[in-house]
Design a protein that fits this description.
Helix content is 28%, strand content 23%. With 163 residues, it is of the alpha+beta class. It is globular and about 50 Å long.
C-alpha cells in the first residue's frame, strides 16, 4: 500500500490579454482554470499594468497538490508553454500567465520562486478574485486576511490639505 503525501493548497493567479487556441482572453483563462482544477473564482476584467493596452481577464484557483513549491512552479510553467506562452517582453501581451501567489505552507523562498508573490498585495486583479473564493486566507508575511488587503487597496484615500 502506497502512502500518499499530504496535499498542499496553492493559490494560482491566472491572467490573459491575448487570443490563443482557446479563443479570447476569457476563454483562455477558463481553459487554464479547467486544466489546473481546484476551486476557481469568477473571471474578472482588469486594466493592463505597464505598457500593454489590452484589457486582461483574471481569476484565481485554489489547487490541492502533493507537489512542493518548485515542482508546482514547474507544473504551471509547463501549462503556460502548452497554452502557447512564449518568453518575451515584460508586461507585454500574453496568451496566459500563471503565478503562484500563496500556498498553505506559509512563506517560501528559493532562487526563481518567492511565495507569497512579492507584488500580490498591490494587485487588485489578484486580490478581488481571491477574495471571492478565500477572503479569510491570511498573508503569511503581514498576517492580514485577503479581504483586508483588498479593502486597504481599494478604499478611497484621504487627501492631506496644506502643512
Amino acid at each position: 500500500m502506497a502512502v500518499s503525501q499530504p496535499s498542499r493548497v496553492y493559490v494560482v493567479a491566472v491572467g490573459s490579454n491575448r487570443r490563443g487556441r482557446h479563443g479570447a482572453p476569457r476563454a483562455e483563462v477558463a481553459a487554464a482554470l479547467e486544466r489546473l482544477g481546484g476551486l476557481a473564482s469568477p473571471i474578472f476584467s482588469s486594466a493592463p499594468v505597464g505598457p500593454s493596452s489590452r484589457t486582461f481577464a483574471n481569476a484565481v484557483t485554489l489547487v490541492a497538490s502533493p507537489l512542493d513549491p518548485p515542482a508546482m512552479l514547474a507544473r504551471v510553467k509547463a501549462i503556460e508553454r502548452a497554452f502557447g506562452r512564449r518568453t518575451g517582453r515584460r508586461w507585454g501581451a500574453r496568451v496566459i500567465d500563471l503565478d503562484l501567489v500563496l500556498w498553505s505552507g506559509g512563506a517560501w523562498s528559493s532562487p526563481g520562486l518567492t511565495i507569497p508573490h512579492p507584488a500580490f498585495r498591490d494587485r487588485g486583479f489578484v486580490l478581488a478574485p481571491l477574495a471571492a473564493v478565500a477572503p479569510a486566507w491570511r498573508d503569511p508575511v503581514t498576517g492580514r486576511r485577503v479581504r483586508h488587503l483588498l479593502a486597504r487597496l481599494t478604499r478611497p484615500r484621504r487627501r492631506r490639505m496644506g502643512p
